[in-house]
Amino acid sequence: MRTARQFTIDELAERLALSRSTVYYWVRDLPISRAGRANAGQRRGNRAMQRKYRLLREAAYKDGLESFDRLAAEPGFRDFVCLYIAEGSKRNRNRVAICNSDMAVLKLGFKWIFSLTNKPLSFWIQHHADQDLAALRIFWSEALGIAPNAIHFQRKSNSAQLEGRSWRSTHGVLTVSVSDTLLRARLAAWMERVRATWS
Questions:
Q1: Which of 165, 102, 152 has the alpha carbon at shortest distance from 126?
Q2: What is the distance, to the nearest Å, from the Cα of residue 39 to the centroid of all Cα atoms in its chain?
Q3: In 3D, which of 157, 171, 172, 181 has the Cα closest to residue 20?
Q4: pLDDT of 37-55, one tens digit each?
Q5: Is the confidence at residue 185, as pLDDT, over 90?
Q6: Which of 46, 121, 152, 155 has its CA 20 to 30 A from that of 145?
Q7: Cα Rg, the chain, nearest whole Å
């Protein structure tokens, strides 16, 4: 992916559900070649495309501000937004993701993400080397009511064994995510509305 598709370190880290530093260590000696400078027409096209998507994000943010009061009247919505402030991924403006080992946290996050987007969700479990992958898949598929084969696996890079650890992630760490730029923009507005009430 680094050489053939010219993925950046951040893109690789997101695709593989690994830390940026781990990915950098693996591919640091595989630089990607940069194409020549864009011509004037390409630059105009790029600016037009960037403007289009900026306006779409701004409209979605405005919609988030306007829809907050209506959604906040629904049970669990404010809890979801507070949860996202604390546990949600904020690094990528095109992605909404929650990662946790607590089933209650993931059930709430999954319920709201699923109801707020029409795009496909992805599910990844980070696990220890000695964990039973089939059992993890069954646990999370039953907890969230999703197909077992929708869940993918990523071995935790900083741990070999679960046995003997004082901090135990018995059912692995599940990430629920969706690539949805406009939902991420609305979510940014909802988080701002909640934060404003705290001050």
A1: 152
A2: 35
A3: 157
A4: 677 777 777 878 888 888 9
A5: yes
A6: 155
A7: 19
